[in-house]
Amino acid sequence: MAITYPLSLPTGIGMAQIEFRVSNAAAVSRSPFTYSTQVHAYSGKSWQADVTLPSIRRDLAEEWIAWLISLKGQLGTFYLNDPAAVTPLGSARNSDTVTTNGSTAAGSNTIDITSAPLSQTDYLKAGDYLQIGTGTSMQLFKVLADVDTDGSGEATIDVWPDVRATISTGTSVYFESAKGVFRLASNESAFSINEASTYGISFGAIEAI
Q1: Is the peptide bond prior to 6 cis by the omega test (within 30 degrees of 0)?
Q2: Which of 30, 116, 191, 209 has its CA 20 to 30 A from that of 147?
Q3: Between the CA of residue 189 and those of 67, 92, 112, 135, what are the distances in Å?
Q4: Angle formed at CA 112 by CA 108 and CA 113, multiple of 5 degrees
Q5: Are 101 and 113 in contact (CB under 8 A)?
Q6: pLDDT-derived band at 114, boundaries 50, 70, 90
Q7: Which pLDDT does position 1 carry in this prediction?
Q8: What DSSP designation does 177 have?
Q9: For residue 198, with 0-12 CB atoms within 10 Å meaning exposed, 13-18 middle and 19 or more buried, which class applies?
Q10: Within the chain, where are the H helices?
Q11: 26: which strand partners?
């Protein structure tokens, strides 16, 4: 069967640890005489991650090794999410069939939604995730402030990172198992085998933009 990207993560065994990092492009200039500072924010924002698997037997390791090699370095892409945040802290669920309310321009740091349950306090909590788009157009967002819906089931969500491509009105919004599209941080992939014949696997990932 032909390999098509983005790939889903192997399911035989989960991660031992994942570290997410948020990267923002900002330039800082500080005077050596007055110490006054000027800061300029650029549009660049992206997710990064480091993934470590537990020490595992070969029969469990080979699925991950084959997956890593099939990415062909930084060529291939894959889906990645926070495994401890599959369900939002707020009451939002995918079964609510929420959509975007109006067109959202690239560069926006807020997203308007509609068709949510009416007058819901803490529909989303700060730190929840949401996903918009599918396949290669998928983007992962972090919710920056608590969200309540109004009497019409509408709300405005403050998000990070900014919207990268215009989102059409009526686009589905996903809250559970929200994912982004990533690629390996390096063209090299490695795995180790110790004297007990257990395998060690780790890799870095960057958001595919």
Answers
A1: yes
A2: 209
A3: 10, 37, 40, 24
A4: 145
A5: yes
A6: very high
A7: 74
A8: T
A9: middle
A10: 58-70
A11: 41
